[in-house]
Amino acid sequence: MGDPDMTDAAETIHVAWGVSRAESVREALRLQGCAERVIALSHALTVGPIASLDGQARRAWLAANTRDDDEDRPDQVDLEAPWAEATAAGIHPVFWVCRTDAAEHACLLAFAARMAGRPFDIVDATGFDFTDFSQVSPIWSLGQLRPGEIVASGLGRRRRPFARAERDAAAAAWAQLRRENAPLRILRDGRLVSAPLTQFDAVLVRQAAPDREPLIALVARTLRHLDAALDPPGQGCSHELLFARILALGRAGKLEVTGPGPGMRAYAVRRPAAHAPA
User: Fold this and answer.
1) How many CB atoms are closer than 10 A to CB 140?
2) Is 274 helix (H, G, I), strand (E, B) or coil?
3) Which of 17, 97, 256, 263 is the most interior residue, by most CB within 10 Å?
4) C-alpha torsion sign, points 43, 48, 54, 56
5) CA–CA distance from 217 to each of 83, 202, 222, 238, 265 (Å)?
6) With the CA atoms of 201, 204, 206 and 209 taken in that order, what torsion angle do they form, in degrees rounded to the nearest 10?
């Protein structure tokens, strides 16, 4: 049964967090003969301050607490433009999400808050069994799915109105997270919760090898661990955050970091014997 406050819209658009996920949704729709627009929402909302929507404040925090491996950073883009477009009057959004991915989950909560009670639909892959269509089971993120798998699985048929009670609960959860304004947000028992900047430090130390290796190898191994071995996976961690935390752990003596930098490939890292796992 539909949402009682559902209204006809002049245009249906599809929304997903991140460019790669949006491109997969766009291609899946195209394969099914659908030419409706797809918007990729920016902002990695699991990392950094969220109390203010001031992009300058977030950029300053990210510059101080994360480390980009790209020496030639692209020009700043308007991160707010896609959000304004996706929540504009006169359109009806369809939000694609897997809520076991922290970044997608955060984006959904923020989107519900910005819609300010207006109705929208949701295609929710959470708990959907893709075993027949993917080598990975269970699926915890839209980012794992190729366009053909989205089509073959019939994921689009799960589209439904995001009920008023769900919208209100999502907006309230986001309001609480904004009040807490923690450095990080992670998943716990299906909920997005606040976490300290040091959340992944112990994992990095455990994942570090006793012999010297390129720093990028530790970052890659830790990301695989967080996405595959950790329960729950999909914690929304980024290589930029891990890179910065490794350097911080090096300054604290918990890891041994050497090399001229500035990129990940120009550093080497090892775990000192004093910090070997028990």
Assistant:
1) 23
2) helix
3) 17
4) negative
5) 35, 17, 9, 14, 9
6) -150
CATH number of the domain to which 262 belongs: 1.10.10
> In one letter, which amino acid is 237?
C
Please give the single-letter amino acid code of residue 19. Answer: V
144 falls within a domain: yes
119 in any annotated domain: yes
- Same domain membership, residue 159 and residue 90: yes
Token pair recorded at residue 29: 């729709």
Question: Could you list the residue range(s) of the whole structural domain that residue 17 is in?
Answer: 11-180
CA dist., res. 112 & res. 55, Å (int): 19
pLDDT tens sequence across 95-150: 999 999 999 999 999 999 999 999 999 999 998 876 554 455 678 899 989 999 99
Same domain, 111 and 220: no
The CA distance from 96 to 55, in Å, is 24
Q: Are residues 15 and 88 in the same domain?
A: yes
Q: What length is written for the chain? A: 278
pLDDT, tens digit, 9 for 90 and up, residues 25-74: 999 999 999 999 999 998 889 999 999 877 788 889 999 999 987 654 54
pTM more than 0.85: yes
Angstrom distance (rounded) from CA 186 to CA 263: 27
Together in a domain, 123 and 173:
yes
